[in-house]
Hints:
The chain has 264 residues and is an alpha/beta fold.
Amino acid sequence: MPSTTEKMIAKKDGNIGWMIFNQPEKLNAVSYEMWQAVPEIMGDYVADDKIRVVVVTGAGRKAFVSGADISEFEEKRNSKEAIEIYNAAGTAAHHALAGCPKPTIAMIQGYCIGGGLAVALDCDLRIAAEGSRFGVPAAKLGLGYGYDGIARLAGLVNPARAKEIFFTARQFSGEEALGMGLINRLVPPTVLDAYVRDYAATIGGNAPLTVAAAKLAVREYLKDPAERDLAAVQAAVDTCFASEDYVEGRTAFMEKRRPAFKGR
């Protein structure tokens, strides 16, 4: 499905769906129309059974996403009503990415700042190139940061690290990000693309129902215990055992060959 704006690139490559923030002249700062395009792109990938993994990245080599496109704030966020409309588009984009039932990978090179870090945190895995920079400059801009974003960060790196990130508003190196668990892998820039493609291929070759069930279980684990839908988790597990893929996995193991999973 083509994007509704040229500033967002959506392309399918085998079982990988790519979503690329395409405003390199502004370090891939996200505009209102870019936020609007995210749910459309993700919705298409979720509905396409051929897509097993989604990779999110930024165009060029200088930035993943450097935050929101502040240059349009005067026009798009100049009243209470306008701010609500703008924020709703951003919220819908984050929900579409974070709520994707398929595994998602943020491929990061360069600046991953503010809203860009929030986009990366929406993804399941974060693989970054050496030299990447991470940070949330809200305290330098006087911005209030919503609970969901802070909770997601604190749950990933621990509350003390989250406080450090927000209180200092400074940029952190890739090595620091790896050390605090903000990213999963840090690789040389020259191999980033190949590394992510190989990682996505590995995930995409595994049983989709099993991966989806695991993702659902982790999502429920992160909720308040009283709000966890353990019945849905068990149903996803039961679906795995009742699937053709379970038969294929066992058969392939016995025959010492690579399984050909179909997601059913």
